[in-house]
Amino acid sequence: MRTYDLSPLFRNTVGFDRMDRLFDSILSDVDRTPSYPPYNIETLGDSAYRISMAVAGFSEGDIEVTQQENALFVRGRAGGDGDGERKYLHRGIAGRAFERRFALADHVRITEASLKNGMLNIELVREVPEALKPRTIAINGGSALKKLSRKKAA
What we know:
- The strands form 2 sheets. The protein has a 4-stranded antiparallel beta sheet, with no helix packed on it. Strands 3-4-5 form a 3-stranded antiparallel beta sheet, with no helix packed on it.
- The chain is built from 2 helices and 7 strands.
- The model has no long low-confidence stretch (mean pLDDT 78).
- It starts with 16 loop residues before the first helix and ends with a helix.
- It has 2 domains: 1-33; 37-81 and 92-130, Sandwich (Immunoglobulin-like).
- It is α+β, with helices and mostly antiparallel strands and 154 residues long.
């Protein structure tokens, strides 16, 4: 891991220590990013998405999918299927507990989650309320003002 010393940049500044800590945290988190379980994020349309996670060895009861505000949490705990009785020559399928967190944009909600053939598929859709959608306003020439001024004159 590389470490960068940014202190020479902050010698003549006051109040930028927060930015220094931000850079430090960004650079240090690169090596700690979890890679298990692997996942894909697909776009299915303008406002539909799918997150697919490879969760071999987990059943529906072992996985919990939770949405809190603008975050999606996927947690898996290792199932107790009698691994203590088994003796492995090679164990390549990881059955360890995991937690993945995904940041969601505003107005994104989960519509469905399914587990089939070791793949967890989470369907998401973005539903923007009508009040927040852009709307087109018709531009009238000066005719509406002329009609109003004629009515007042009469």
